[in-house]
TrEMBL record:
This is CMP-sialic acid transporter 3. GO terms for molecular function: pyrimidine nucleotide-sugar transmembrane transporter activity. It comes from Populus deltoides. The keyword Membrane applies. The chain crosses the membrane at residues 40-62, 74-94, 173-191, 203-223, 244-264, 279-298. Belongs to the nucleotide-sugar transporter family. CMP-Sialate:CMP antiporter (TC 2.A.7.12) subfamily. One of its GO terms (cellular component) is Golgi membrane.
Amino acid sequence: MKNGALECSVCHSKLVSPNSRTYSKAYDRHKNRVSSKQRALKVLLVVGDCVLVGLQPILVYMSKVDGKFKFSPLGVNFLTEAAKVLFAIVMLLFQARHQKVGEKPLLSISTFVQAARNNVLLAVPALLYAINNYLKFIMQLYFNPATVKMLSNLKVLVIAVLLKIVMRRRFSVIQWEALALLLIGISVNQLRSLPEGTTAMGLPVAVGAYIYTLIFVTVPSMASVFNEYALKSQYDTSIYLQNLFLYGYGAIFNFLAILGTAMVKGPGSFNILEGHSKATMLLIFNNAAQGILSSFFFKYADTILKKYSSTVATIFTGIASAALFGHTLTINFMLGISIVFISMHQFFSPLAKVKDEQQNEMTELRDVPERLKSKDSFLDLAAAANEETTHRVGHDERQHLLPS
């Protein structure tokens, strides 16, 4: 290769070779198209998640009568899982009807059995989610909806630690500082937020609330990380088939909990349809939609993004609870929300990822010469072979090949 062109060793003709700048521009255009689609998907996921997560504590609060739940929380969770199973089946049938020729059929028994074996790990997050969904109702007995939403943001730090341990994910110093700032924002909001003068389980309410908070933070964090790991480890499996297994396990665990409650409290508690209202029906629909959206977050986006998007819903929850139920938006809440938003901006800032991006760009630039070398070698061989064939059909050289 001379001056960016390939030269034939026989006739010395030159062919233009793609240089690294041309290759880089073409790759950048492709990368930008892919990145724009990913950004659009993430924006839609975040917007949908903000609406659904923001409404969830409001609907739970609206479902209470005289400070208590007239319905069974386990029954609501079971109906939610059943609704998600139904959605997964419908979407799986729709996807199977639009499969391309030659693709492995989604509805075959062999495909289903093999997928069930490969995705058995989804039973772990399904169990953890069943526990967490019950705790969501218990937390409403101690805190108002805005405070519950702020407490759930503590999951971000726990998730970051679990992602580092389980999935070996790396975070920059700036991102760890953003997570610390998030904790500060939540702590500011929680000043003077605990109710006083009542008891729970024979313990002062503060102690009981803190115990529930500890479980409420750690259990769903583990569920989210294991869910992302399980979904992405079988990335080629249809997400609707994976959701069918995940929600199926969840329905089984919730049904077993209902049976256990019926054995302890009597057959009267087995009626899962008792005490429902329009608010609980909306709650079931909201929880089902939120669970379905979360699966797309975990498989195609990121668990940290999912939890940070939930923090955006905090301001919606706070304003809605103040407007609907007269809850006061304290200065602590406003300061806490501001710090949380600053933390979120800092975590996803380009400065927080500059080191990783530079490393990826350097890796890509190092790979370009290797790819060009292999491509140049192939072009050299192709040009030489083509030139040799051309020479063989020439008049003068054919004279030497014919017998005299």
